[in-house]
Every structure is written in structure tokens, then in C-alpha cells.
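Task card 7
Instruction: Convert sequence to C-alpha cells.
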Amino acid sequence: MNEVEIIKNELSFFSDCPRVFALEEVVDRIDIPINPEVVCNHLLSDRRFLCVRESLGSGNLFIPKRAVLSWYIYLNIHLGKLKHPRISKREFLFLMRSLSISKYWESPPKEIVDFGEHFGFVGSAESSHEYVFPLAYLLSFVPSYPCGAIAEIIRESLEILNVDELTTQTVDYGISQLKPLEAYVLLCRTGWLKNLTLTLQLLQNKIPRKWLKPMLSTGGRLTLQQIAYKIGGTRERIRQIEKRACCRKVLVRPFMKALIYEVVSKKGRLVYEIDSQYPVRALIAKCLEIPCVKIMDSRLFIMGLSSKELKAVSYPKQAHDTRSIVEWIESTIRPVLLREDIKRLSETISSSRPKRLPIDEKLRAILKSIGRPAHYSEIAEVYNEVFQEDARSETSINSNLHSNKSKNSGIVWIGDKGMFALKEWGYKRPRHSLKETVRRIVEKKYKETHKPVSFEIIVAELGKYRKFVRKSSLNMTIKSNLGLERISNGLVVPRKFRVYAKRGSGDSLDKILQRFERQRNLNKYHR
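Output:
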């Protein structure tokens, strides 16, 4: 035997190895002296092996793809039985110990993770330190089934080329095993599926033509009342027939096959387009008791989420853009979906929000995202960036902010021109205008102290009535307030106590106060 044949024989031996192995192990098994680089090149070119470059030691490690495939298959089956399809990176590393030589990896090898992602066995969650197992998630809903049979189905699915056609054929075979009336009711409730050759033969031989012709011509779903009217009986009897058909054990294996075909071919994605295959997928999910729900205002549906769970996700009032909706979905229901699926779901929800949310809820969401009191022009700018399909002018935004609906939503005008905030932040709509509030503060303080009121005192007292006041607005208010008089820089008195002090005269504060006191005494004498 020449050198190449010896290497091939040794690689055939290692192709059944259930763990990673080092290049040195292969070289040591070869009796003749050989260059390790030659063996390494053979391993790299052999499609039966996976090279793990981020190894524990200094050199590369290799593992048979068959071993990785078997490990992923049984991992998904057992996680499905445990109903634990979402695990942390640390747990994933612990489960990978059976593939390593003697130690644990510091992080999951990228090559092994990529191999699992290619077949939909594992995927990255939105959280960077977690992994999700979509196949295990769907298997957790399916009635108990032998692990060996599931593993065999998964291996078969990896060799499929035309998934849609084979899925339909598998479903066709399963429905053809039912009683004719059960098959008829099940298809009436689901909608007629194309290319059901075996089922069509069963129905044509056993079902009256007057029942079958309308279903074949329209292909749409019928209600319980419509089916009861056609075949005679009550809605409850039709419902019982449908339930009995879905629970037949003869459907479990073929429908489970079809389910695994779909998941593996889509690489673990559970968010689907509503296309010609939608009735098939919906029927599979219904018979295997897997939640399946459409997303409102879109042509998407999700396997593994119920309508009850999705109801909260469809109207996330706390979030307004894609990123915040992703965070909201993760923190609320933590779905077992790949990162790409969650992103697609959040984009769909975000794009459909302008059509559903009222204007006051949108404005509330924008203010919450800004996180502080803002002018209506700034609110309008952010609003038009987020809700591009519902863009509005600044005037329109301002009028909506002042409307009663916005007031009921917790948006309040905080006293300054064009400034708005949320009531939950502690802001209230002022009862009086800024001019009136400042005049009352000055008169109150003057009566208490009989001295001019400083600007600092006004600001301090104003904080009891308003949480937000611009310094420029306060200066302008004091200047234009007819009920106040400035006697010097920073000192104000009520106008009815006029003090004729020229600005910039150079008089000291003591002289001004003395003059003010004389005027006050003179007023008392005239009374």
C-alpha cells in the first residue's frame, strides 16, 4: 500500500470517532514515517471532517461531521423533551464536553456553531450570551415520540432538495390515512391544499360530489356552520369531527416529518411568509398542537407563538423604533426565535404602528424617547423621523399637543412657550401665566420683608409653582410686566411703590433703600 492509501484507511477509521481528535493522533497510528503536513492536507480536503481552528492546544483539532450531526440531533430531541430550548453560552459549553478531548473549550468553537446554524439546529438569540434551538422548541409541543424515529427523520431531511413538494406529499399521505368524512372536514376547515393526489382519490370515492365540488372550485376555508349546512348536522358535531381528525395518531409521523423538513430547510427560522405553502404549514401546526399565528397588517406568520402571546407584542406602546421594540419583545415574552426572526418581527410591528396608534400615543412615545421637556419643533422633528409614513407639520404637532386627547395621555404644557413634558415626570400645567405668577411672588415677598425682591428670590419661589422656567423668559417677563418696577439690576418692587432711580446712576444700594423708605413713609402720612 502506498502512502495515500494508508492515510485514507486511517481517515476512514477516524470518521467514526465520536469526539474531536488532534493531528498527532492520526500520525501516531500510521506505522510508517510520514510528514504531518501531508496528513493535515488530507484532513482539510476530506468533506467528512470539520476543522476546529480555535482549539484547546496550539494545533488544529478535527471532528467528524457525522459526530457533530448526531450530537446536535439528540441535543435538540432532549432539550425538546425537557421543554428548555433556550440555554446560556455557559450551559452550551457544558453540554459540548462530550465532543472535547479532555478539557472544556473557553468558548463554543465557531466551526461547530456554524455547522449547527446551517441546518437550523442552533441559532444566536438576541442576547449575546444565549443560544436558541428552534427545532427543540417545536418538538416540545409534539406528543412523545421515540427518539430514534425522530433522529431518522432529521437525517432524511438533510438530503431533501425540493422541500415544498416533499412536504405536501407527506401531508397528503397522512390525510389519506384518515376516514373520508374526517379528511373532508379537516380540509374544509384548513382550505384545500394543492397536489393532494392520494387524498383527492379518497374523497372522490367516498364523498358525495355535491360536497366536494364547491371546495375544489373555491379552495377557501369554510366555517363550522357552512360545513354543517352542507353535510347536515350541527356546528358542535363538525367541531368534534375536526378535533378527532387532528388527534389521530396516523398523522403524527408524516406530519412530524413535514415539520422537520420545513425547519431544517429554513435553517431554523420560524417566521414565514404567507405564501402558497401557508395552508400546509398551518395544518401541520394545528394537528401537532403547535401554536401558529398571523401577524396583523402583514403577510407573516409565526410558528411557536400563540395569539395570546403576540397580542401584547403587536401593540408595544412603550416602544416606537425597531431597536426598542426588539428589546421590548425580549424582555416581555422571550420568544425562542433567531436574531434574524426577531429583527424581522420588530420591523413589521414598527412599520405597521403608524396605521394603528392614535396621534396622542405616538406623541407620548416620542416624548418618552427624548426623555426630557422638549419644544414642539423638536418633537415634530423626531416624530417625522420615526413615523415617516405619517409625517406632520410643526403646526399640526403643536395643535395635537394642546388637544384634550394629549392631555388625557399625560402630555402637559409646562408654562414656557411651546414646551411640553409628561405628567409622570412630575410636571403640571401651571394655573396662572408666568407674568401673573411672578407679580404675585414679588407682591407677597414685598409684604413680608418691605424690601425690594431680588432675582434669585423670584427664581427660588418660582420653583414652587413650576419645574421648568427659562432664564431668558423670566427676564423678559419682568421687563414687560406692567405690575412690576425694576429699581436696579436684580431688584424688583411692585409698581404701585415707584422708586425713581436712574439706571447706572452710580448710587449705592444704601441710598436707594433710604430713598425707598422715605417714599414709603410719605405714602403713610398722606393716608
